[in-house]
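Table S5 (text form). Sequence records supplied for joint modeling of the two-component complex.
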Amino acid sequence: AQTVTQSQPEMSVQEAETVTLSCTYDTSESNYYLFWYKQPPSRQMILVIRQEAYKQQNATENRFSVNFQKAAKSFSLKISDSQLGDTAMYFCAFMKGVYGGSQGNLIFGKGTKLSVKP
Amino acid sequence: GAGVSQSPSNKVTEKGKDVELRCDPISGHTALYWYRQSLGQGLEFLIYFQGNSAPDKSGLPSDRFSAERTGGSVSTLTIQRTQQEDSAVYLCASSLDGAGGVETQYFGPGTRLLVL
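The corresponding structure-token record, covering 234 residues in total, follows.
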């Protein structure tokens, strides 16, 4: 069975600074995908960034980037130039590779509550 | 276009009553998922639909939980004889049926269920 661990229940950062959220996972699968989702107080889960395990290059999306260390099974999220709107719960998630057009369910970590302070 | 919608937004019910939660996926999305988010258990997968069929029901916690999907669109999650431990936020997500690989799941705002 796959597991996802987020070891930081809460973090805070000053506006405009950089913060890194940690995530580790355990799997015996060779083909899989990793995601970071953001959940603001509105409850709506929003995809921040995704990484295919077969890709060596770290994914980036504007101010968000990941540090994917496949051998260490680590997938951290770096938020640069933090903004007040980044305040939210952040969830790391894992999905097994899928075949033949079927899709799979996400396995989530417990989340990290990030507060961006003015 | 419109995102995933869920209704009701909040539901308060008495222990032992049945409840129905509704999910309207993004138009054209053939894959649909239900998850449950609770303080104690975090985010848990419940069930996955591909079209109207459910190839994966492995996350349903008991036989009091069931779900259906009609017309390849709207889905209803039904909880019979609700218990206090069913109190949680129930999230629905949908995605395209991507033959080329994993598709991004888009989530609705959830239904907060409180069982008294």
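Note: The radius of gyration of chain A is 14 Å.
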